[in-house]
Every structure is written in C-alpha cells, then in structure tokens.
Amino acid sequence: MEGLGLVVCGEAAPFSTALRSLVNNPRYSDVCFVVGQERQEVFAHRCLLACRCSFFQRLLGSEPGPRVPSPVVLSTVPAEAFLAVLEFLYTNSVKLHRHSVAVTFGLGPLQERCIAFIEAHSQEALQTRGFLELSAPALLPLLRSDKLCVDEAELVRAARSWARVGAAVLAQPVAEVAAPVVRELRLALLAPAELSALEEQNRREPFIPVEQIVEAWKCHALRRGDEARGAPCRRRRGTLPREHHRFLDLPFK
C-alpha cells in the first residue's frame, strides 16, 4: 500500500552530540549575543532558536534577513544561565548547576526542572548571584512552592536581598520592586518574636505591605490559620517547627 512506509530512526546520542558541538560555536552562526555584566559573546543559530522557543522567535523576528541587530545585548542575563538555556534548546537536555538555573525564557519543561532543582537545593540556591538576578516572573513560582527546603525566616531575608539588588539596578524603592512577589511570603509561619523584628525592620526599610503583616498577626491573635487564603499559613518542606504551627491548619470560624 502506498500509504505505508518504513520509518528509520537513528541513534539519539550522536545526534545530540553533534548539535551540542554547535552551542556557542561561531561556525555557521548567524546571530551573536552579548550577555551578562561581563559582556561575554555567545554565538548561536537563528533558525534553531526561533523554531525551538517563542521568546527567541519574538526577539529575532519572524522574517529572515539582516534587520535583526547583531550583537543582541542581554546584559541582565548571566552568561552561564544563558549557555544552559542554549544547550537545552540545541540538545533537549542540560545538566543543571546551582549557578545556571536563573533564566528559562519561558521554556516550560526546563523551567519545571529548574524549579525542582532549586526546591531540592534551596539553601545553596538562595545564596547565589543567579538568585539575586532572577526576574519577578521567575521568582514567583519559587515563592509559591510548598517544596522549598528552607525556613520562612531565611526566605524572607533572601527575598529582601533580591529586592535590594533590583532596587539598585532599576533605581526604584525596595517595596516597589518587591510588590509583584512579596505577597507569596508566608509571614504567619514566623514566631511572634520574629514577626516583631520583621515589623521593626520594615519600618526602617519598607519591604512588605503593612496589611500583610497585620494579617500574620491576626493568625497569631486568633490562633487560627486562614483557610480562604491558604498559602500564607501553609508550611513548606523546609519550615522549622514553631509552637503556634499546630493552630495554623484550622480554618477561621
């Protein structure tokens, strides 16, 4: 029958190896990126990036030709993270390290693996430069995760450091930079002494909306978790036990 045919599949490993050899290879490259504060040159192939990732398709344009600016400057993207993304696009696999999980360019499968990596290595990841250079959209799914292996007090400090770096870069107030993500911090998990210290620090350096701190105090005063809000009282994998936590799973009445 004419409709039937033989499908021949080659070995995946040599194919992946061949494509990996093209990562940051100027040979046959038709687009150059300048990435990171070090302004490292990275060479790539426009057709491959555009067909694999909608971010690059929009960045490089849909029509071929010399109109695409070269080099493309991505000064806020760490070079190691950018190269990890390229390797994934070229080969559909990449070995993640704690310094290379900062940027995912909207790649669903890679983003999921990055989040899982950070969840398993939270303490180390929060101390990296890559964490401080995360965009707000990239930080949001992390702060929403129940699987982070880190206590909330440490996560609050890390989020404040992230916002301070963003404020310096963007010349904006810390609270303004933090606004898109700070609601995901679960302040009700903190003990009263910790919450008092945070409140005092927040007076000196606004970071968290006052009403969010008030909601946390409400959980302590009523000795109830807010079932409607859910996440502000839900423990994470790395949450250290505190005496009041036994009340947080109960709903308001």
Characterise the protein shown here.
It is a single chain. The chain has 253 residues and is mostly helical. 45% of the residues lie in helices and 5% in strands. It contains 12 helices and 3 strands, in the order αββααβααααααααα. The protein has helices at 12-20, 46-52, 54-60, 79-91, 108-120, 122-125, 129-132, 136-143, 152-170, 174-178, 192-204, 210-222; strands at 31-35, 40-44, 72-74. The protein has a 3-stranded mixed beta sheet with strand order 2-1-3. β1 and β2 (40-44) form a beta hairpin. α2 (46-52) crosses α3 and α11 (192-204) packs antiparallel against α12 (210-222). The longest helix has 19 residues, at 152-170. The protein is elongated, with a radius of gyration of 23 Å. The termini are far apart. Mean pLDDT is 84; it is low at 227-231. This is BTB domain containing 19. InterPro entries: BACK (IPR011705), BTB/POZ_dom (IPR000210), BTBD19 (IPR042846), SKP1/BTB/POZ_sf (IPR011333). Residues 29-98 form the BTB domain.
